Predict the 3D structure of the following.
Amino acid sequence: MTPEERFERIESQLELFANFLSESAHRAEQRADQDRKMIEAQQKAIEEHEARMAQFDDALNTLATVALQHQERFGQVAEQLQGVTEQLQVLTQAQKRTDERLNALIVIVERYFSNGQK
């Protein structure tokens, strides 16, 4: 092989190597662009997710507050119901005494009229 052929061969190989490096750099840039776009999309998705989580957190706090308010109201209703129950028991006892007195009056009136008719 002559020095000129050798030189042409080396030059050809260097040209192939340069083309390979150029293509590799171009592919690396494309991959980097794709990676940047993917990272940006993921960051946007994360931000949207965080916003939704904040809304969910707010809704959960509101729900917890409403649940506590209802619990307090149920406690008040239970106390009021206990008071009504006690008043109903008092009223029942009073009605019982009234019935006893009314029955006693009926007996007296029946005796009065039955003695008077004889």
